[in-house]
Amino acid sequence: MFDLGTQELIVIFIVAFLVFGPKKLPELGRTLGKGIRELKAAMRNVKDSLDEAVPDVTEEIKGVKSNLQDSIYKSVDENFKEKAGNKEEAKVQQEAQESHDLSKGGVEGENVKKETDKNG
C-alpha cells in the first residue's frame, strides 16, 4: 500500500517504541489496525457503488449515442434529399430555359432569314 520495505518498518517500530513506550504500543497497534480495516472497508464500498453505477452510465451513454447518430443521419439524409431536389429543379429549369432559347432562337432565325430575303 505505501511500498514500505523491511528496514523502513523497523525504523518506524523503533521510533514508535521510544515515543509511546512498551505499555501503549500494543494498544496503538490495535487502534491502527482497526483504522486501516475501516479504511479498506470504506474503499471497498466506494468501489462497489462505482461498479454498480457504471452499467447505468454505460446504458445512458449508449442511448445518447444512438439518439445522436439517428439525428445526424436524419439531418444528413434531409440535406441530401434537399440538394438532390434542388439539382432536379435546376435541371428542369435549365431544360426549360434551353427549350425556351431554342424556340426563341428559331423565331429569330426565321426573322433573320426574312430580312435577308428582303434585302438580298
Structural key phrases:
single chain, mainly alpha, 120 residues
> From N to C, what is the helix and strand string?
H
Share of helix, binned: over 70%
The description of the largest β-sheet is: none
User: What is the overall pLDDT average?
Assistant: 78
Total number of strands? 0
Distance between the termini: 113 Å
Shape: rod-shaped
Tally of alpha and pi helices = 1
Pick out the low-confidence regions. none
- What proportion strand? under 5%
Structural class: mainly alpha
Computed CA radius of gyration, to the nearest angstrom: 44 Å
Q: Can you offer a commentary on this structure?
A:
This protein is an all-alpha fold. 95% of the residues lie in helices and 0% in strands. The protein has one helix at residues 6-119. The longest helix is centred in the middle third of the chain and has 114 residues, at 6-119.
